[in-house]
Amino acid sequence: MNYSVLPPEINSLRMFTGAGSAPMLAASVAWDGLAAELAVAASSFGSVTSGLAGQSWQGAAAAAMAAAAAPYAGWLAAAAARAAGASAQAKAVASAFEAARAATVHPMLVAANRNAFVQLVLSNLFGQNAPAIAAAEAMYEQMWAADVAAMVGYHGGASAAAAALPSWQQALRGLPGLGQVASAISGGAASMFAAPAAATAAVTPPALNTGLGNIGSWNLGGGNVGLLNLGSGNFGSLNLGGGNTGNANLGGGNWGFANLGSGNIGNTNFGNGNQGNLNFGSGNLLGNGNFGFGNAFGDGNLGSGNVGSTNLGSGNFGSFNVGSGNMGMSNIGFGNLGNNNLGFGNNGNNNIGEPPRHVRRLQFLERMGSC
């Protein structure tokens, strides 16, 4: 497995979940016990046969018995040494795991980094968080590198321990009558299981998920359908969060592609609760390319609470207005009611400036009367 392509969310979680080094330490204790038992058996077998041949049993038959028993006594001693070696290698694997786990970044630190990154991006409406975002990404890359280095070291230590283990079939070949059996068992087993194993490897997909109810591969969480989702209830691929439908969403409850935030319906929205595409902010409704909050039924607004398109300001009702509180089209200023006005509080079209005081008073009375 190539650990370098796995993010720290996966490598760290795998190292800090499961049984840890306890099974290897238990195996080491078991191999130690077996080595002691085999050593006692070898010593007892050797002393019994030598006692028989040296005292009560003499002649050619005794010599033949001693010659036949010698390989078995030697095999018991060799098996005891191999068991002791297996115990030592199991301890080495456990030590390699503990060292790798100590060098691995804790999953909570990775989650905290990603949460801080999301919060910084969501609040970076004017680019003020760019240095902090870069620092968070640099720290995340360092976490990635630390986890990869830890996994590579663990893999190297475990591989070296496994390579140091001698073959038990080689020890059996020295025994009269059992060498052929050992060769037949090892060769027959290899030929018998080679074809099914190859066929299984050819048809089995790499469904490596962490969690429950996932359909796909490389999902970390539960109930995901797709690939490389980090979270739960995602339907798609490369989502970071929960309840997303689509691909490459960062947040929760998004419906679309490459949304950064939550509750967005559309594509490439940055914020929350947007409906449309390429909106920066929150609560933009049925529009595209809006920058701000609460813009509705239009495109390309820069500000908040605009209803229309291409307004620069806030609270405009119409399109192409520059300012705030304008109702109409192509007004520049504030509080204009009409079209193509330049100024403040104009009522009508094509006005420049603000109306005289008595006109403003009449406009005010007209508005009060209309209310």
TrEMBL record:
UniProt-listed InterPro entries: Mycobac_pentapep, PPE_dom, PPE_sf
Domain named PPE: residues: 2-166
Superkingdom, taxonomy of origin: Bacteria
GO process annotations (BP): response to host immune response
Pfam family name, one: PPE
Assigned protein family: Belongs to the mycobacterial PPE family.
PANTHER family the UniProt entry points to: GLUTAMINE-RICH PROTEIN 2
Name of the protein in question: PPE family protein
Source organism (scientific name): Mycobacterium orygis 112400015
